[in-house]
Amino acid sequence: MNLLELPFDSGDIPREYVLEMAAALRDPSFAGAIYAKGKRTLEQHADSWVPRITLLAAHRLNRENEFLPYYGEFLNWMDTQPKKDWYRLLSDSAPADDMYSQSGEVGIPFESLQGEFQRLFDNLGSPDDGHILDIGCAGGLWAINLAKHGYRVIGTDKHRGLIEHARANARNLGVEDKTQFLVDDACASRLAPEHYSSRVLCLAVTPCLADDAAFNALIAHLDQVSRVPAPSGRKRMVVLGGNRWGLRRVSAVNDVLELATRDYPLASARLAMIEMNWWMHAHHLQAIKKLFPEIVLIGERDQKLDGVREDFLLQ
């Protein structure tokens, strides 16, 4: 197969062809031909994989700074398009006994997760202060760890298969009596009021959103389900965590390019993940402030190849 003859301007191509093309970028003459064809195509029309492979070709030719503005424009355009439900594909492929993969926490050191758990515990208050609502609970990673520390948790997720995993995980880890897992789409919720809580977690959900409309629906849902009196009389608390921020996205792209020479196919796959994620921008923060006047940053995580993900305490 001649990779240069692949249709850059009409129709998507199988993922394996893109990875094969990325591997061939080690040949500078091939990289030069891909770069020239990619730039020509982008002046007219291109499918989503073309900017990615053209950027990697530019990197191979030491011309990434020349092409990065074009790639940035492409990412900004991607933000205006409905995102695919990539998380369903990831979670459906996770092993039945791997709660970390089911929850999307792949490639993150366990020590980093421990730090995040501790930061959460420092802000949650007493286990006796009513149940916690975990929106987008996935395989139950956070809910089950909270249950191990005495909290009662209700978890929701729109993917039925993940809810089934979460129930099995809770049963296997001996916290079935402290957890309840329900199928519910936070962006089109039908959650019964008896499950509402003054303490709500929404962790790593925003990167999986489809568009601004889904974000607005999610924030409205967080506002609605948290408007219940707390047993202790304290303020309501919503933790919106694991958000990817558009202003920091270029750092994630640069992290990928740092490692590209060693493994161009892997770099291509990581750029694809950056493109698929939904990223939060300044106007989204303003939308949050309308419903949650007080926003407190309770921590941040800076991971290579992932950009900066920030956690906010909304009250």
How is this structure best described in words?
With 315 residues, this protein is of the alpha/beta class. The chain folds into two domains: 96 residues; 195 residues, Vaccinia Virus protein VP39 (Rossmann fold). It is built from 13 helices and seven strands. It has a seven-stranded mixed beta sheet. Strand 2, helix 9 and strand 3 form a beta-alpha-beta unit. Helix 1 crosses helix 12. The longest helix is centred in the N-terminal third of the chain and has 15 residues. The radius of gyration is 21 Å and the shape is elongated. The termini are far apart. The mean pLDDT is 87.
List its salient traits.
47% helix; Rossmann fold; alpha/beta; 315 residues; 13 helices; 7 strands; elongated; 7-stranded mixed beta sheet; single chain; 14% strand
Rg calc: 21 Å
Task: Classify the beta-strand content into a percent band.
Answer: 5-15%
Total tally of structural domains:
2
The side-by-side strand order for the widest beta sheet comes to 3-2-1-4-5-7-6
Tally of extended strands?
7
The CATH superfamily of the largest domain is identified as: Vaccinia Virus protein VP39
Helix content: 40-55%
Task: Provide the fold topology.
Layout: H1 15-23, H2 28-42, H3 49-60, H4 64-78, H5 86-92, H6 99-102, H7 110-124, E1 132-135, H8 141-148, E2 153-157, H9 160-172, E3 179-183, E4 199-203, H10 212-225, E5 237-244, H11 249-260, H12 264-276, H13 282-291, E6 295-303, E7 307-314
Parallel strand pairs: 1-2, 1-4, 2-3, 4-5
Antiparallel strand pairs: 5-7, 6-7
Helix pairs in contact: 1-12, 2-3, 3-4, 3-12, 10-13, 11-12
